[in-house]
Amino acid sequence: CNGGVKMAPQNGGGCSGEDDKDAKHMFDRIGKKVHDEIVKKDDADAKKYIKELKGSLSLASIFVEERVSSPDPCNLKNEYTELINGSGSGGSGGSGSSVAAGTVARGDPCKKDGTGNDVDRFSVKQQAEYDNKKMKCSYGSNDKNEGACASFRRLHLCNKNFPNMNSNDSSKAKHDLLVDVCMAANYEAQSLIRYHDKYKQSNEDSKICTMLARSFADIGDIVRGKDLYLGNKKKNQNGKETEREKLEQKLKEIFGKIHEELIKYKTNSALQARYNGDKENFYQLREDWWTANRSTIWEAITCNDDKKLRDASYFHATCSDGNSQSQATKQCRCEKKGGGDVNIVPTYFDYVPQYLRWFEEWAEDFCRKKKKYVDIVKTYCRGEYKEGKDRYCSRNGYDCEQTVNARGKLRMGKQCISCLYACNPYVDWINNQKEQFDKQKKKYDKEIKKYEKGAVGGGGDSRRQTRDARGGSDHKGYEKIFYEEFKRNGDYGDVNKFLEKLSNEDVCTKVDDKGGRINFKNVNSGKHSGGGESGDRGKGASADGNSNKTFYHSDYCQPCPPCGVKRESDNWEPKEEDDKCKNIKLYTPNEGVKPTDINFLYSGEGETEIKEKLNKFCDQTSGSSGGGSDSQKLYQKWQCYKHNEVHKVGQDDDDYDDDKYVEKGGGLCILPNPKKKEESEAKSQNEPDQFQKTFYDFFYYWVAHMLKDSVHWRIKKLDKCLKNGTKIICKKGCHGKCDCFQRWVKQKKRTRMGQNKRTISQARY
User: Boundaries of each Duffy-binding-like domain copy (predicted)?
Assistant: First the structure.
């Protein structure tokens, strides 16, 4: 249980939930119990039928038997290559070909589509699509998110050959299926191993054997009809079926032939009793076939042709020789010191419900990315910027040594704009992660209840819930055994007990307090509880009410303290909030000076605020609405002056060189604080009368928001509307969005030129 190299064999109850180091260790502990219940017990049902369902690669009808080089799935490289291309439409496989006549071309298991292009599974582009589109979460028949979120690894699993499987001989269907599953497993491993070294550079905790175990379990769920990932939900060109429906139909076709062969001869009454009623989806048969063939499939996913798995070890001790347990330290395989498939396969993830596996993988991925993000924002918001000097920047790009929010003094500098660029994607990402966490957490109780005897939830009948749990079948399979053990031997019926184990993952313990220490247990499920989106106005993002900082924006992506900060020894300390800090007015325009008015279309800070305000902009600038006073509420009305058109009316100790800063900054821009009018008198007293920043700071701020809004337009609003070509065109049905984007661009151009063609830069020179 503790992951040592050798340990005494576990009999009876094994470890308790308290002994599980983390969720992965718990998965293998309970998964082993499920496996043993199904296979190893003297009266275990699946054990009785392994011989009838065990496949042999050399006996497959899709190969010419005498031309198959080896029954070892790792020695079929040439055969796999030939199978990808098939034997043509009914023609022979050709002299010397291993592929039998009439074998359908499978296609490359790893191709994303039929174009022949490889998918760079861990590219920045693929990762961005995964994070931004929320494409990973499964949906029910009513198109509502069910809370099971597939991992980045799962999105491009190498099983694209499955929909093209065929078997022309029911007596050999079990062998033919094994060929296709082994080919998928082998190509999946090649894909993961190829990218693992690059992936590991930024994810040092990534273990290749664990990644292979996860894909192995996902392939098992596909074969058994339990996969939660629906893929592309659009109908194919025939308009009749989705990708998932086509795959499921093909698997039922193959298992139908295996079923036909099993019940053909009525001499085995036990076989008749077990499979005769299993005719619609063949779930029992599919589960038994996987149990019988998992060892061969694990061999296929752990081939070591290029020696990259030579020293690859599973993360803890699971192998057994009957007397003790040891760790798989070579090629992700046990050493076959005992009997049975467990002495090849070190993992039991394939006996853990997919929802739980995905939740654990999601948590590990979250922790790894959060650590990476926190390191980035720490560098750009606190790191040395020039000549070894430290800086303290806010998430909105302000220098907190010079900025005094309490009286509206806003100062950029020290390249603090880099902090804004670093924090914006991080804040959007972690808010999105919070939503995904809430959905998965909410699903926990419902998922367990699906497999309880006579479970009734949400007013629905238990029969319907059971069918939902198994895609329309009353067969519950290994999940039922797992969840019973899950609750009984570990007390994981309480979601917080499970979340505690997720928090114990090694990578999740590496984020410190300033980044927001990770503890999934007792996370507040309120919207964006990790912090607000208000930027530098107010107190900004904070932890949950119970001080849980799992989804905290970090100390680095916060607004400046009200009165700024000062350096004391090696630490930054907030300045005292006294009257001197709050009541000094910096600059006021000279009498009779006419400012340059700039209407800044301000869409806010966070993703939610940007979305709401851009939608309002579209509504209020459409031809039907005609604009009006409401549209003006979307703008900040700044008034800008040359440096010699304003004069200082007060200063504190840190304002001694402010005149030079304003002069070198191209002048001064002033925004009356709308919150002075909008908020109650008590709250309004804590707000400055106005905000002041130099023209250059204002310009950089405008550019930063324009770029941020542009990203939102491209990723969130226009992603599915633009068609690339010699000329980018707007797709049918998207003209409302495209027209609004053009209006937004025109407005930005007008702001850039300045009203009445009089900008501050023109006035200055």
Answer: 361-524, 698-750
DSSP state of 506: G
Model-level pTM greater than 0.85?
no
Token look-up 């400046």 returns 560
Output the six-digit token pair for 33: 């119990």
**Any residues with CB less than 8 A from the CB of 26 and at least 6 apart, and which?**
17, 20, 490, 492, 501
Q: Which residue has the tokens 């030129």?
A: 753
Alpha-carbon radius of gyration of the chain: 31
Place of tokens 């339990």: 226
Which amino acid is located at 409 in the chain? K
Residues paired with residue 330 on neighbouring β-strands, in sequence order: 333
* Amino acid of residue 396: N
Residue 588 tokens, joined: 């006021």
pLDDT tens digits, residue range 324-377?
788 999 999 998 765 555 568 999 999 999 999 999 999 999 999 999 999 999
Burial of 609 (0-12, 13-18, 19+ CB in 10 A): middle
Residues 119 and 127: their CA atoms lie apart, in Å, by 12
CB 721 within 8 Å of CB 740: no
List, in sequence order, every beta strand (DSSP E) within 590-687: 596-601, 635-641, 646-648, 668-672
Tokens 């690859």 — which residue? 312
Considering only residues 213 and 168, tell me which one the structure prediction assigns the higher pLDDT. Answer: 213
d(CA 632, CA 625): 13
Tell me how far apart the alpha carbons of residues 209 and 213 are, in angstroms, rounded to a whole number.
6
Read off the amino acid at residue 321: D
Asked if residue 450 lies in contact with residue 469, where contact means CB atoms within 8 angstroms, the answer is: yes
Please state, in angstroms and rounded to a whole number, the distance separating the CA atoms of residues 420 and 397. 5
Phi first, then psi: what are they for 194, rounded to 5°? -60, -40
pLDDT band at residue 290 under the 50/70/90 scheme: very high
The DSSP H or E segment spanning 729 is: strand 729-730
Residue type, 191: S
Give the span between the Cα atoms of 479 and 221, in whole angstroms.
11
Side-chain-side CA neighbours of residue 130 (13 Å): 20
**Nearest in space to 230 (alpha carbons), one of 246, 217, 254, 253:** 246
> 405: which 2 tokens?
């929010």
Mean pLDDT (the chain) is 79
